[in-house]
TrEMBL record:
<dbReference type="Pfam" id="PF01833">
    <property type="entry name" value="TIG"/>
</dbReference>
<feature type="domain" description="IPT/TIG">
    <location>
        <begin position="30"/>
        <end position="109"/>
    </location>
</feature>
<protein>
    <submittedName>
        <fullName>IPT/TIG domain-containing protein</fullName>
    </submittedName>
</protein>
<dbReference type="InterPro" id="IPR002909">
    <property type="entry name" value="IPT_dom"/>
</dbReference>
<feature type="signal peptide">
    <location>
        <begin position="1"/>
        <end position="21"/>
    </location>
</feature>
<keyword id="KW-0732">Signal</keyword>
């Protein structure tokens, strides 16, 4: 009897042990030898190696806090490959395999900050408020957001980048431009947002030559004001003055003629002057000039057709780091800037405006072309000094004359004033004060 009882107890123990073992083991992990990378960047492609991956399985990233995310991994017999979603945030996550109601943790990895996904990126240096601009680069995707200041911009992805419209209520200033993709963001660079303007008037005073010529110009004192009016499409219509000076511009397609003047100008599709006719400065005969621009849109030369490249009649300009650094018209003027006062983009070079009266007396054909020009790049900053070719009136030797330029911008008006009596007597450029009033487009 004792032997029978012992056998029964052993049998019960065996049955109980077997039942407990089955419950604890559960379903077997179908993946063996799983190798999970220790870390990876958000947005990067990752492969979890191992044997037994198959269709019907799902791989999740499970953060320490928050909701797990389906990786939509591509399964092969020896691994699972997926791209870490941009919805993830930096930190540790578990890599979890699921099949039906069963799940297994294959390992853990640390998610690192995502790399900027945009290559060959190019931003415009300036963006007109209210304008559509293109940020070029490879890697933009539907759903991307561009943020400028506190403004989220609507985007349209194109083959060469993304198009955005700068909000009309964005204040004029320099901004960092950010790309936002789900929970990730990157600074793409800095851009200056500017108010689009046109020159409304130019007032010249404190100019020794103007004081002398004032009676001949119908002026009672040495103050000359030029007033500009524009057509509905933004083209220059007329320039009037407080004296006898004035010009009326007539348009025939892309050709602009000036009433009662021998000047004509040809425009390209962007509204830039590409050729002009006027008088040869030496012979007085009709001459044709070619206007050229560099890849950035800066005016680099106005050359008389048929003249040598270094002829005195040719206008040649040089830009360095986005600012006018020199120009030559028979003699050379060089410039520096302390980057304190910004220019009004796509208008007229501030130094050319400073010497308005000199241009009108010597090369008004060039100056009228400067005013007619549209969508032409100009310096980023107003110059603060000019070093001009000049002549020593006692010895006749050529010298360099340095003149300071003081400027300010307030209430949509740029005030520029050169110090001393003359910038270059040899060039007929006298010191003066010029106030340029702008109007918003």
């Amino acid at each position: 009897m004792k032997k029978l009882i012992s056998i029964m107890l052993m049998l019960c123990a065996f049955i109980t042990f077997s039942a407990c073992s089955s419950d604890d083991d559960g379903p077997t992990n179908p993946v063996s030898n799983a190798v999970v990378p220790t870390s990876a960047k958000i947005g990067a492609e990752v492969t979890v190696q191992g044997s037994g991956f198959a269709a019907g399985q799902t791989l999740y990233l499970q953060p320490e806090q928050g909701t797990e995310v389906n990786t939509n991994a591509k399964m092969t017999s020896n691994g699972a490959t997926f791209t870490i979603p941009y919805t993830m945030t930096e930190g540790k996550v578990n890599v979890v395999l699921k099949t039906g109601n069963d799940s297994w943790t294959l390992g853990s990895m640390t998610l690192l900050a995502a790399d900027n996904p945009i290559s060959t990126l190019s931003l415009p240096g300036e963006m007109g408020i209210g304008e559509e601009v293109t940020l070029t680069g490879i890697g933009f995707a539907q759903g991307d957001e561009i943020v400028v200041g506190d403004k989220k911009l609507e985007t349209t992805v194109t083959t060469d980048g993304v198009k955005v419209t700068i909000p009309a209520d964005l204040a004029e200033d320099e901004y960092a431009v950010y790309l936002v993709r789900s929970n990730a963001s990157w600074e793409l660079g800095k851009v200056y947002a500017f108010q689009k303007r046109q020159v409304e008037s130019i007032t010249i005073s404190d100019n020794a030559a103007l004081n002398m010529y004032a009676p001949n110009l119908g002026l009672t004192e040495g103050v000359l004001t030029l007033n500009m009016s524009y057509n509905e499409d933004g083209t220059l219509k007329e320039i009037t003055s407080n004296g006898s000076l004035g010009w009326v511009f007539n348009y025939n397609g892309k050709t602009v003629s000036v009433e009662n003047n021998p000047y004509t100008y040809t425009l390209d599709d962007q509204g830039r002057v590409i050729s002009s006719t006027g008088m040869d400065m030496m012979t007085g005969e009709k001459a044709t000039y070619t206007w050229s621009y560099d890849a950035n849109g800066y005016l680099t030369s106005v050359k008389q057709v048929g003249a040598a490249d270094d002829a005195d009649v040719n206008f040649l300009s040089t830009y360095t780091d986005g600012n006018l650094s020199a120009y030559t018209l028979s003699l050379t003027n060089e410039f520096t800037t302390n980057k304190s006062i910004r220019t009004c983009p796509n208008t007229v070079e501030p130094y050319y405006l400073l010497n308005t009266f000199s241009w009108l007396m010597s090369r008004d054909d060039l100056f009228l072309g400067f005013l007619l020009n549209r969508n032409v790049k100009v310096s980023t900053y107003v110059p603060n000094q000019v070093v001009a070719d000049d002549q020593d009136m006692e010895t006749g030797e050529m010298i360099k004359a340095t003149t300071g330029i003081e400027s300010s911008f307030e209430n949509n008006a740029l005030t520029i004033q050169s110090t001393g009596a003359a910038i270059s007597q040899a060039q007929g450029i006298y010191a003066n004060k010029v106030v340029v009033k702008y109007k918003n487009k």
